[in-house]
Write a structure and sequence with these properties.
414 residues; alpha/beta; FAD/NAD(P)-binding domain; Immunoglobulin-like; 3 domains; seven-stranded mixed beta sheet; five-stranded parallel beta sheet
């Protein structure tokens, strides 16, 4: 097996991997290798042909392929090496990778690694949908790939389970392709996707959204013929008297994303239960020295602009690590989620640099503030008109305010 050595290896050629690679090169690093399992760069953006990307980064609404192409063009112009159609088979805690490519098996020893593998979708098996197993059941992302990239119409009468952003966007897409979207059913009492997507993809097209309602049985032998739906109580248990049959030939699942962290686990990276992503410090380094994480493999983002911004910072941090810049001597300060906060990221900070804390709340709220405190002392506060679990919140904390901090606590102040 051929063995090569590289300074920086980036796993994943989607928006996070591309932004990290471009940033690392612009910060002076020459030896960079990006590994992507698809035949082309761009990741999930290639199938997201709707607009709305780039409003923060480029101040204009771009489609997914347009947004990706801007980074691909810059990546190519900078002459960064890429291995396409290549799968990383293993990664150990010494930053040694084994990959399978058209050139055969290759062992790569890296001085630093950036994990940017993105997410996969939960499937029907993952949520244990009862009933028969007919054709016509797809994840929303798989349906998007069939319709947008392969020009395959997957059905005419569609039910969507889950109100995640991809499911909402596919409700609109299927309608535009001539299908009848019967309804979107959401288990939770509030939509899981962005408010703008509910408005633009459902309300504008007259597609009904049923909250606190789920699919409890699939029907059909060879092809799906319908689904049984019912309302749920506050413990998410079915209310039997609300059961009803909804005829359909296609069911799309938009029931959550799972960060692709199998390689991270094999390298000994510690994961956070709340995010299913790595536990990182304010330089986005994991507990394994020289291994960084960014993008949706770290935590699920709702805006690709934030992915690119985060990954750009990670690329710079990886260069600093490779240049031998020592980590801050002060012990890391823990950042802890408190009242109404589901998770915070990063989980530890040095207190020596300005940092942006990303977080999500546990429930919808209005006219509240996110508060960062150290033993009761206010460190940072951000007032918001609307807080929703579907929308990631970012709050900036200045180094001068946390130089003597022992533990930062993040909560919601109503």
């Amino acid at each position: 097996m051929q063995t090569i050595e590289r300074d920086l290896v980036i796993i994943g050629g989607g928006p996070a991997g591309l932004a990290a690679a471009v940033s690392a090169r612009k910060n002076g690093l020459d030896d960079i290798l990006l590994i992507e399992r698809d035949r082309i760069l761009g990741g999930i953006l290639n199938q997201c042909i709707h607009d709305g990307f780039g409003l923060h980064t480029f101040k204009q609404a771009l489609t997914g392929p347009e947004y990706a192409q801007r980074f691909i063009d810059e990546f190519t112009a900078l002459g960064i090496d890429a291995l396409l159609d290549t799968i990383v088979l293993s990664l150990d805690n010494n930053r040694t990778l084994t990959v399978s490519s058209k050139k055969g098996f290759i062992r790569i020893r890296a001085r630093a690694i950036i994990l940017a593998m993105g997410c996969r979708e939960r499937t029907a098996g993952a949520i244990s949908l009862p009933g028969t197993r007919p054709s016509g059941v797809y994840t929303a992302g798989a349906a998007q790939n069939f319709v947008n990239l392969q020009n395959i119409m997957i059905g005419k009468h569609v039910v969507i389970l889950g109100s995640g952003d991809i499911g909402l966007i596919m409700a609109r897409r299927m309608t535009l392709e001539g299908a009848k979207v019967e309804a979107v059913f959401e288990l939770l009492p509030t939509p899981s996707g962005l408010a703008r997507n509910v408005r633009q993809c459902l309300d504008d097209y007259g597609i009904p959204l049923f909250l606190s309602t789920s699919v409890f049985e699939l029907h059909g032998k060879d092809r799906l013929t319908g689904v049984t739906v019912a309302r749920v109580d506050d413990r998410f248990q079915m209310i039997p008297e609300t059961r009803r049959l909804v005829p359909c030939d296609t069911l799309l699942l938009s029931v959550g994303l799972i960060p692709e962290n199998e390689l991270s686990l094999s390298a000994g990276v510690r994961l956070e239960p709340a995010t299913s992503g790595a536990s990182v410090d304010d330089r986005f380094m994991t507990n394994v020295p020289g291994v960084f994480s960014c993008g949706n493999v770290l935590h699920v983002h709702d805006l690709v602009d934030h992915v690119s911004e985060e990954a750009g910072l990670v690329g710079w941090c990886a260069v600093r690590y490779l240049e031998g810049e020592p980590s801050p001597e002060k012990a890391f300060i823990p950042v802890v989620p408190k009242a109404d906060i589901r998770y915070v990221l990063p989980q530890t900070i040095s207190g020596k640099e300005d940092v942006t804390i990303s977080l999500r709340v546990t429930r919808p709220m209005r006219n509240a503030a996110v508060l960062v405190t150290d033993q009761g002392r206010k460190v940072a506060r951000k007032k918001l008109v609307r807080l929703h679990p579907a929308e990631m919140i970012r709050i900036k904390v200045k180094a001068k305010d946390i130089e003597t901090a022992e533990k930062l606590e993040v909560s919601v102040q109503c």
